[in-house]
Write a structure and sequence with these properties.
By secondary structure, the chain is an alpha+beta fold. The protein has seven helices and nine strands, in the order αααβααβαβαββββββ.
Length: 220
């Protein structure tokens, strides 16, 4: 495992340095047809928010990630809690979701790092669900969206496995970016069971449904 991991890391180091830039370039280069562009220019229909139900247990992978990269978890309390959706902002959200999904190659944490669950920015171009969502958040923040409105969220998928998605809290409701889906959907259309999300202060998590929390989100 150790030699394979080192070999993999060396083999991807050169392309990894360009991964984040490639994602940004992909966003600008996406050439949708006129019909798709018109569809994306329209704002999504308003939808219900998913309400929190009190405190939830922290995820060890998230805690370790925030210790390694505190700037990625820091929340400015003066930032707005929601994004005001405009056609331009919606196009940016959809484009970043598609671009990262196309750019990040799926690899489990066990294969990548030799551990069951590790949260990280996929700078080498490989990662699983939470890694893809963390990269999307970084790119959305660079595009001008408030980090406070972009909350990492844990769900149970259709196979009963833990999975991570990225919530965007907007003035039209809560929408989710997902590496399994290029469409950005309201929570009611995802067919997931929502477990918990980062709190608005960035230091804790809140429950979204009271179901048992998965031990890990090591699922692509």
């Amino acid at each position: 495992m150790g030699q394979a991991l080192v070999g993999h890391t060396r083999a991807q180091s050169r392309s990894g340095r360009m991964c984040l830039a490639a994602c940004a370039s992909c966003i600008l280069a996406l050439g949708w047809g006129q019909a798709q562009a018109q569809q994306l220019a329209s704002l999504p229909a308003p939808t219900m928010r998913i309400e929190s139900l009190g405190a939830a247990k922290l995820i060890s992978g998230w805690v370790e990630f925030c210790h390694r990269a505190p700037a990625e978890c820091a929340v400015d309390p003066d930032e707005p809690l929601t994004v005001t959706l405009t056609p331009k902002t919606w196009r940016t959200i959809v484009a970043i979701n598609r671009a990262v999904n196309a750019s990040i190659k799926p690899l489990t944490d066990q294969e990548h790092w030799g551990v069951v669950d590790r949260w990280d920015i996929p700078e080498d171009g490989y990662g699983d669900c939470e890694d893809a969502q963390l990269l999307k958040r970084r790119l959305l923040v660079k595009a001008g969206l408030p980090r406070r409105a972009l909350r990492m969220t844990v769900v149970i998928d259709g196979t009963g496995e833990g999975h991570a998605v990225l919530m965007v809290r907007t003035d039209r409701g809560d929408f989710f970016l997902d590496n399994k889906q290029n469409s950005v959907l309201p929570w009611s259309q995802t067919k997931y069971r929502f477990v918990k999300r980062e709190s608005d202060d960035g230091r804790s998590w809140v429950s979204l449904g009271g179901v048992e929390s998965p031990l890990a989100t090591a699922n692509y």
